[in-house]
Design goal:
The complex is a heterodimer.
Chain A (H helix, E strand, L loop, with lengths): L5 H11 L5 H18 L6 H24 L2 E3 L1 H20 L1 H12 L4 H29 L3 H18 L4 H26 L13
Chain B lengths: L2 H13 L3 H4 L1 H11 L1 E5 H8 L3 H13 L3 E8 L2 E8 L1 H20 L4
Antiparallel strand pairs in B: 1-3, 2-3
């Protein structure tokens, strides 16, 4: 017989709030969109859409997940972990500018090695960085399926090193796979947790 | 101390168990409420798998004992009922856990 662990109980309750696939939809949609902006040569719009889609994510949680699973306020230790994850993503976003600035400066100074390295191995570098970021988010959020997305990220971009498709195509592929996964999870979630019937709700008081 | 007196003392721990919490359904409810700050009825129903009636009956007993508090508050401008453990409830639950740990620690197959 397994021991009953309060820690596992809390973890199980927390993870049930992420079975809905909404996070996967959010990630997949933003990756797809990022690919589209690169394809359309409008990369400057990519950040704007993350800012717009974040409130949409929150609203989807309120409209889809909470009416099915109920409202809960997790303990502060869990909230602190979520805040660390968000902070990590914000920092990663800022740090992403640093290599770009470095390349700009070195190229301007006539040093070709860094930019040449990126031209030669850029896809592998992006694959490793992307995988590391997603794996870290997976660890902080305890959502193990994100590790599969991390591996997929690495595989796609390492494969891209040997193929000659436009960069945006790999983002289309990655975004589509994650989006489809999110849709599947959302449908499964809605079937597993149907909305409570109206006449049941009066018992709640 | 005679063998009989020693056995009675060993089993007196069992007599001190909080029977209100000891009931499996209420133990589940107390366990879930102990790991969150607050939750509503639907959350508890989903996590425990109880029917509304069953859940409501257990919650009434726990509320009458002062172990949980039912609060009506506004969430996003909509009235909402949430529950949380009271200090007395948390203390009782921790005491129950300690008692059970001691009991099972001392129950020996020898």
């Amino acid at each position: 017989m397994n021991n009953i662990s309060l820690k596992n109980l809390e973890r199980k309750a927390y993870l049930s709030y992420h079975e809905d696939g909404i996070l996967d939809l959010f990630i997949g949609f933003n990756i797809l969109l990022f690919g589209f902006w690169i394809f359309a040569d409008m990369v400057y719009l990519a950040g704007a859409f993350v800012a717009i889609s974040t409130p949409i994510y929150a609203q989807m949680k309120k409209q889809i997940t909470i009416p099915r699973l109920g409202y809960v306020k997790f303990a502060s230790s869990r909230t602190a972990k979520s805040q660390k994850t968000i902070l990590l993503l914000v920092i990663a976003g800022f740090l992403a500018f640093i290599p770009g600035v470095f390349l700009f400066i070195t190229t301007d100074m006539g040093i070709q090695a860094p930019i040449q390295f990126l031209i030669d191995y850029g896809m592998i570098v992006i694959g490793i960085v992307g995988m590391s970021l997603i794996t870290t988010v997976a660890y902080l959020t305890e959502l193990r399926r994100l590790n599969a997305y991390a591996v997929l990220f690495l595989v796609l971009f390492v494969t891209g090193h040997f193929l000659s498709f436009p960069f945006a195509y790999y983002l289309f592929a990655l975004g589509t796979i994650i989006l489809v996964s999110g849709v599947y999870l959302l449908i499964r979630f809605q079937q597993a947790y149907p909305l409570p019937l109206g006449d049941e709700m009066h018992v709640q008081g | 101390m005679s063998k009989d007196e020693s056995e009675v003392e060993d089993f007196s721990l069992l007599g001190n168990i909080d029977r209100l919490i000891h009931e499996p359904g209420r133990l589940m409810i107390m366990s879930y409420l102990s790991v969150v700050e607050s939750a509503d009825f639907l959350f508890l129903k989903r996590q425990t798998g109880f029917t509304w009636g069953n859940l409501s009956a257990h919650l009434s007993k726990l509320e009458d004992a002062g172990y949980i508090e039912v609060i009506k508050e506004f969430v996003d401008k909509k009235p909402h009922t949430v529950l949380h453990l009271t200090e007395a409830g948390r203390t009782a639950f921790n005491k129950y856990r300690a008692s059970m740990t001691q009991i099972f620690g001392e129950l020996s197959t020898n």
